[in-house]
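Retro notes - structure team

What went well: the batch runner handled both jobs without manual restarts.
What didn't: labels got mixed up in the shared folder, which is why I'm recording both outputs here explicitly, each with its sequence directly above its tokens.

Job 1
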Amino acid sequence: MGSWREPATWRVYGRWGLVVLLVFAAVTNTAATSGGRYLTPAAVAAVLCGSALLVRRLPWALAPALSVVATALWGWVLLPLLLVALFDLAADRRARIAVGCAVTVLVADVFTAPVVSLWKPQQYGSSLFLLLAVVGGLWMGSRRRLVEALGTQVEHLRVERELREQAARAAERSRIAAEMHDVLAHRLSLLALHTGVLTTKADALPQPVAERLSLLRTASTEALADLRDVLGALRDTGTEAATGPAAPVLREADELVEQARAAGQHIDFHATGLPEQAPVAHRLAVYRIVQEGLTNARKHAQCAPVTIRLCYASPDTTVEISNTAGAPAPGRIDSGFGLVGLRERVAALGGHLHAGPCGAGAWRLAARIPHPPATGQNGSRT
């Protein structure tokens, strides 16, 4: 907000300088028309008008009223201060009052016959100055309100974008938690199943082994229950209650590629290594990155060929999606928050994601996610 306050401060300084200069000129001119005497009623009136124009806490009608009376009595000498008052009225959406003040001072000048009449230098000259002051005030007031409205709109858009980015990050975190819930539930279910099968043959096993198996069985079932209690709300509980907990399916990027090809998208797909060589969280992230890359290509470069390169092998999982320039899809909706969620996901895994143009209208989306250090059977890192 500092950028909006600084111009306002300079406007205040400029206004003070202008009014002080006009008051000084009015006092000097009154001294010239009164034989060199500075302490005259016209000089006092000029100081009072200038003070009323500068002090904003006074009633808004005081400055125009003083300026009209002073200009009607002393004519051209105090006209500049009246022009400032009319400018302020017009800028504050009081154009009718400003026009009324201008007409009043012109009519009163005929009856008061000041030393330097408003009609004396040139016919219609003074009225032209008054009209220019009103028009200038209207223009300045409209411009000031427009700038303030634009500043407010920019601030609202900034806050709205921040809220949408936060919502996108929260949605991606919820999606990660739900996917990890599915994967861990699947692993824990397998562990509980196999330990349960072994405990049925506990009679044929040594007593310590049977006790360990029973402990593993109990721990796995309790961990599975705790996991469902903590993260189960992220899933469709109504469907799960009706059909029972379904076995989670870990989808791979090649499924997305086949679906996109079936929909008519031209894709050059290269994969190095096996998906099983990468952690489950990496495979879920790769699926989302490929999904986002193909969707963006369909939206922004329709019918353009897409190249996808994957590498699951250690030391890190890499994915790169690039497409050449193409015609945008009609009726597309651009949000940009899909990439915000992807960055949140990749950053949570310790990786880095890059998205941007790569020349001649082409686009590139790439990510690199390091593999966690391997651990030996004793739990030490190898």
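Job 2
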Amino acid sequence: MMAEGERGARYGFEPFDCAPALRLEAHERVATLQFESLNKRLDRIEALIERLEKRLWLTVYGVVGVILAQAFQSLLQGMP
């Protein structure tokens, strides 16, 4: 049989460590990990949006360049 003092040391928990507190700590750790993961995803999405925006502007400048080139060409053809 165990004495009363050995019984408390066997479990290794301090008196203030209880199941709800441990569950709360675990929940806080999970929430922290989820927020870190969410921030990483948002950073990747922002990088993708920036790349897409650069491509969009390149396309717009290309279309404007073609229109201006056609206008300039028609002006050159119209001159005697």
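One thing worth noting from job 2: The helical segments are 4-11, 19-78.
We'll revisit the folder naming next retro.
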